[in-house]
Amino acid sequence: MRGLLFVLPLLVAMPAAAKAPPNRASAAIPTRPSLLGLPKVLGARRADAPLIVIDPGHGGHDPGSSSADGETHEKDIALTIAKAVRDELVASGSFRVALTRSDDRFLVLAERREIARRLRADLFVSIHCDSAPSPAARGASIYTLSDTSSDKVAARLAARENKADVINGIDLSSETSDVSSILIDLARRETMNVSSTFADRLQKELAPLIGLKPTFHKFAGLMVLKAPDVPSVLLETGYISNEEDLALLVSEDYREKIAIAVRRAATSHFARQLAARTRERKEE
Q1: What average pLDDT score do residues 244-252 get?
Q2: How far apart (Å, rounded) are the C-alpha atoms in residues 240 and 246?
Q3: Cβ distance 43 to 90 under 8 Å?
Q4: N or C: which end of the chain has fewer CB within 10 A?
Q5: What is the DSSP letter of 21?
Q6: pTM, whole model, 2 decimals?
């Protein structure tokens, strides 16, 4: 997202305070009022450490999918795996980490992504497990936002009266709908590219450890992925409707493998981003 902010001034005369890229580290906990109770950020104390928000799907009165016998629910599996991922990332000492929920509570989809936005997260990972009518279906997969969904969301965001918070660090409230739509589209497309890049790295790290669906990386207009300025993925960790996958999903070993893969993918992802920014500065 930082790279995008260098080209925005070419499209619109922005206030001086908005021309510089937002300092995600110093603004990890925004001071503006929020109706959301922001979760505690754990992990590295370094202000420049990437912030990753892990989102355990479902919760509270929404159990998500259930096992064939009705005894095991997606919301519980998602929370357990999310905590394992959090602990692995925190233990690495390289990241700041927050969970959208750390207990059995319900959050609407928009609230989940808004938590990531208000924390100014560098990455959002939503954890789920899949289900299918056929008990034979199994394997993990990952979703990122589709181009079609991106275009529709950008148009809706551009039409809002209050545009101060559409893109973190940039106030679009004084811009026309056409200009706002262009800027939002640029931001979202860069976010989508970063999301897809992380999804590909996560696939590379997961492949040697767990079973993946043949078409691992998919694209969809999932509500939880529609933050315009936070790279976001939704990880389906396996099929709760399949007996073999279910046995894996409730096992500590499987959770650890997923957590290790996420940590390795995040390490590679942010290292490459840092290297790219360093090259850009040298070329200026």
Answers
A1: 98
A2: 5
A3: yes
A4: C
A5: P
A6: 0.79
